[in-house]
């Protein structure tokens, strides 16, 4: 990736975090204080399979309402695993071939450096859950690659491809717990300095994130070797889509299904739901930086699917 292509974007360094903005010719989001904040209305479903069916319905309804290709951003971890198992079964038939043939599939974050075939990589987990037929039938699959010496160049190329396809149609999101009932979306971390104009970032990783990542993959049933875990614990950065990518998505479908194994999500989710978002620009910026889960509240088209235990005390 040429330096000219990198210069085409805004590039900000905030502490140890690198944030890349939208390209100069792409539509821009307004600053965060200019965006309307919306209440979060959780939709409580009985089981993880019910959540999966609701997620799948969102994709099929979206596809039925428009023509052409669809850009879908996959969610790592537990939140969409039941969905992926459902899609895998359907992909092994011909019943959704026309839908799959319209999908451009992307991932939202990745640990770096890490081999793609590491059992703790999102790519390997997607392959395990969605199966060979899914990846054979979709129009394209573009993972974030971290087996490169030029992570920034890879990230520029990645977001450039999303933009070239017209932006994100459906963004599958979860909610990650952080200290003090804060939260992260994708891997936009508290204190990382992300703004509404940052489409992707390269941020340093903490031991707490690595521990959370390893735990949720083990609970999800991933096949993980000792060597995989050692490599994962030596990761130094996370590549992640940023607030501009989330805000620019046409539809967000959030799912929180693992409060039983990650109980901190209960308090984190409730804080996102109950926070009164400030109108003052400086105060709002501080809220979003302290608790990036609140970026969800600035999007007008969100469906938040949760299990009953998420709202338990």
Provide an overview of this structure.
- This protein has a single domain (3-311), classed as Rossmann fold (3-Layer(aba) Sandwich).
- Helices cover 37% and strands 20% of the residues.
- Mean pLDDT is 91; it is low at 1-7.
- It starts with a helix and ends in a 7-residue tail after the last strand.
- The longest helix is centred in the first third of the chain and has 17 residues, at 48-64.
- It has a seven-stranded parallel β-sheet, covered by helices on one side.
- The chain is of the alpha/beta class and 313 residues long.
- The chain has eleven helices and 14 strands.
- It is globular and about 55 Å long.
- Helix 3 runs parallel beside helix 5.
- 44% of the residues are buried.
- A hairpin with a 2-residue loop joins strand 1 and strand 2 (17-23).
- The chain has helices at residues 3-7, 48-64, 81-91, 97-100, 122-137, 151-164, 207-219, 226-233, 243-248, 264-274, 281-290, and strands spanning 9-14, 17-23, 42-44, 70-74, 103-107, 109-112, 140-142, 170-173, 176-177, 183-184, 198-204, 237-241, 251-256, 302-306.
State the gist of this model.
The protein is of the alpha/beta class and 313 residues long.
Topology:
Elements: H1 3-7, E1 9-14, E2 17-23, E3 42-44, H2 48-64, E4 70-74, H3 81-91, H4 97-100, E5 103-107, E6 109-112, H5 122-137, E7 140-142, H6 151-164, E8 170-173, E9 176-177, E10 183-184, E11 198-204, H7 207-219, H8 226-233, E12 237-241, H9 243-248, E13 251-256, H10 264-274, H11 281-290, E14 302-306
Parallel strand pairs: 3-14, 4-5, 4-8, 5-7, 8-13, 13-14
Antiparallel strand pairs: 1-2, 2-11, 6-12, 9-10, 11-12
Helix pairs in contact: 2-3, 3-5
